[in-house]
Known about the structure:
Blueprint: H1 4-17, H2 20-34, H3 44-61, H4 67-87, H5 91-97, H6 106-130, H7 137-152, H8 178-194, H9 206-233, E1 238-247, H10 260-271, E2 281-283, H11 297-307, E3 312-320, E4 327-338, E5 341-349, H12 363-366, E6 398-402, E7 421-427, H13 436-451, E8 455-460, E9 465-467, E10 473-476, E11 483-490, H14 497-501, H15 504-526
Parallel strand pairs: 1-2, 2-3, 6-7, 7-8
Antiparallel strand pairs: 1-11, 3-4, 4-5, 8-9, 9-10
Helix pairs in contact: 2-3, 2-4, 3-4, 4-6, 6-7, 7-8, 8-13, 10-11
Family: Belongs to the CN hydrolase family. Apolipoprotein N-acyltransferase subfamily.
Function: Catalyzes the phospholipid dependent N-acylation of the N-terminal cysteine of apolipoprotein, the last step in lipoprotein maturation.
Keywords: Acyltransferase, Cell membrane, Lipoprotein, Membrane, Transferase, Transmembrane, Transmembrane helix
Amino acid sequence: MVSPAQAWRRGRARLRTLDCRASGALLFLAGAVSSLAFAPFHIQPVYLAGLCLLIFMLDDARTKARPVRSGLYRGWMFAAGLFLASVYWVANAFIERGEPYAYFFWVPLILMPAGLALFWALASAAYVRLSRRGPVRVVLFAALLTLAEYLRAHILSGFPWNIPGQVWIAGEPISQTASVIGINGLSALTLLTLSSPAALSGSGRTPVRFLVPAAAVIALAGLFAFGAIRLSATDIEETGAELRIVKLGLAQSERDYEARAAILDEYLALSASPGLEHMSAVVWPEGAVPGLILREPELVSRIGETLGPVPLILGTARVETGARPYLYYNSLAVLDWVSGEPRLSAVYDKARLVPFGEGNPIRNLTEILGFTSLSTNSPFYTPGEGASVLEVNGLPPFLPLICYEVIFPGFIRGAQSEAAWLLNISNDSWYGQASGPYQHFNIARYRSIETGLPMVRSASAGVSGLVDPLGRGTQLTGLQSSQALDIRLLAAIAKPFYATHGDSPWVIAFIVMLLLIHAPRIYARLG
């Protein structure tokens, strides 16, 4: 009978004998399976297994004729599988847009995963070049991938989607760590703890090799305990304001400009449900009605006739015609009524635009292929000035976040101190009933954990509802439902540590830990 230790040694020996194609295929498959750690599944053990396998395969790359190149290839294959399986749903946006854009569906299925995987590939190559066989190599691995994910979140406008910390369900105990170190700090801890079992393999005394995963288990237990205490000990109060969130479950292909009158009728019918007179405002999602509704007085008048004195907060495209070319914005507008006449009392213009969806950083190149952007209202939008707080009569001041903006933790830091709550409007109908809308909602809830602010969310064909200041969804809709949801707005809680200090404390602590761990090697080289 083969003992577990013998089976382990045989398995590691087989990994070392794999040729280039076999190792690449195995890592690609492992990366794809690891995507199950993210929403809506949150199966974290597959991420642990994938990270450990990647470390083993990178360790084996050092025995190859060109170790750094082998590490680059192996890291790229793992990450390509991970990103293809976790963001494949972006292709649905091209298909929903129809011809000729549907012919570009291969871009998010090939070029996007390939590009995102480069960050992990470079980190993997650096790991092969710098690491040693000892158990502390997992710390270097976590540090390099943390740096890679930071760069992925910032280069070329950034895409911090499905970063490691997001394997944890927002609003549950471990996610509360983000209140202290943010989602980036939680990502660093996630990489460090979930890759720790790899320390059991390699050189070094057995007690030392067991020390690293044992410390990781203790750390995870501590994070869970901290989160559980925070969830149970924090009192959540109401403000007294009431909001009506209205959303439709229409697919993007059903949201034609010609159908805008019928779509408006659906929104108005749901908005006028019994109890409207008790609402402080009605909220519609991003791009609720196709077209430039603010420039259509008849449609605006119909809204006023239905809502009466109740303000409407809606997402809409708008245009400024004072200059050439005209400036188009993806906006959140507040309409209220003075003596029965409509008034545009506040506007926020989206500042972080979706690459290729609302803007195009390589427009001159893609226009040769007949592609500008996926926008249905203009070839491209103009970015707004940045995050800002809006006020509506009868409501505490709020910070609007339109769709993609909610995925950036640093975007709201400058304005959050003046806000009492967050409002996220989105159009998730581009992504169908795949995992994308669930991932978007999980990411959004981390902004509440980091800021201590409740969030109201209205998303077309997405999860809408109320999120408390701890990231827990309290009143939620399904993806495809069309409904009006009445909520009582919650009050903010005391500002978390992260809201006032940002990423600097944990980054400094992480760097100090790396220096302490590698101090003997540094001294040896200097000597």
